[in-house]
């Protein structure tokens, strides 16, 4: 793991400026609200979350963290975007979401503070926004208990993903603010798998996420050419 502050100030500022819109389902964060049930159901089907200690790394305004807490998990959401965290905390108070807390801390710093403390760690739509994604993967591996699960989702790096996830989503369909993703920061599945192996995580399940702009419907599939999800497990479980 590298410097505990593994973050791009421009990325933090980008999401902080939009923080007040996290829970507006017709805002720039509409895609996150639309895919959240898919993410939650898949995570729950692989590892379960009810009654477990769950960490959501890069939680933003708390969309996934809140949903996992409502499924019965004890959730800690962490992020370095202070304004987004305030929105998450306020939403938890207003919605009376049980068993969810938020902290402004990096995954690397928390890994030094609380190694092996969580049954499940999620890191969704975050790796493509940090300078050193391998460091985040290593921190997630350090944070999960032996035998525990770590889930990642990110975007592949290839011409198809450039056309669909950047040109299409940001410039044609205006689903996301322009500049949300940088092509050079996108991560191929083989690269993420390499980071996971180096961190002691075994890749167990892979899924792709697809979108039909005509029906505005998302679904999970075997196609990992654009958006994809990894379910990994840390060795040493009973």
Automatic annotation (TrEMBL):
This is Ubiquinone biosynthesis O-methyltransferase. Pfam families: Methyltransf_23. S-adenosyl-L-methionine binds at residues 39, 58, 79, 124. Keywords: Methyltransferase, S-adenosyl-L-methionine, Transferase, Ubiquinone biosynthesis. Pathway: Cofactor biosynthesis; ubiquinone biosynthesis. One of its GO terms (molecular function) is 3-demethylubiquinol 3-O-methyltransferase activity. Belongs to the methyltransferase superfamily. UbiG/COQ3 family. It catalyses: a 3-demethylubiquinol + S-adenosyl-L-methionine = a ubiquinol + S-adenosyl-L-homocysteine + H(+); a 3-(all-trans-polyprenyl)benzene-1,2-diol + S-adenosyl-L-methionine = a 2-methoxy-6-(all-trans-polyprenyl)phenol + S-adenosyl-L-homocysteine + H(+). The keyword Phosphoprotein does not apply. One of its GO terms (biological process) is methylation. HAMAP family: UbiG. InterPro entries: SAM-dependent_MTases_sf, UbiG_MeTrfase. O-methyltransferase that catalyzes the 2 O-methylation steps in the ubiquinone biosynthetic pathway.
């Amino acid at each position: 793991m590298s410097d505990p502050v593994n973050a791009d100030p421009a990325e933090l500022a980008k999401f902080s400026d939009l923080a007040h819109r996290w829970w507006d389902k017709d805002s720039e964060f509409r895609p996150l609200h639309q895919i959240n049930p898919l993410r939650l159901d898949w995570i729950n089907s692989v590892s379960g979350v009810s009654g477990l200690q769950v960490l959501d790394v890069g939680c933003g305004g708390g969309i996934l963290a809140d949903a996992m807490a409502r499924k019965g998990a004890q959730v800690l959401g962490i992020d370095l975007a202070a304004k987004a965290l305030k929105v998450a905390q306020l939403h938890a108070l207003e919605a009376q979401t049980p068993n969810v807390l938020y902290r402004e801390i990096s995954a690397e710093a928390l890994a030094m503070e609380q190694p092996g403390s969580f049954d499940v760690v999620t890191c969704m739509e975050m790796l493509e926004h940090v300078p050193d994604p391998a460091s985040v993967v290593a921190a997630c591996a350090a944070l999960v208990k032996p035998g525990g699960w770590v889930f990642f989702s990110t975007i592949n790096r290839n011409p198809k993903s450039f056309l669909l996830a950047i040109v299409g989503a940001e410039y044609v369909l205006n689903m996301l603010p322009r500049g949300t993703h940088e092509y050079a920061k996108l991560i191929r599945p083989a690269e993420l798998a390499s980071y996971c192996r180096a961190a002691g995580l075994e890749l167990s399940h892979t899924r792709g996420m697809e979108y039909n702009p005509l029906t505005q419907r998302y679904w999970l599939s075997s196609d990992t050419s654009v958006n994809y999800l990894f379910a990994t497990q840390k060795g040493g479980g009973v």
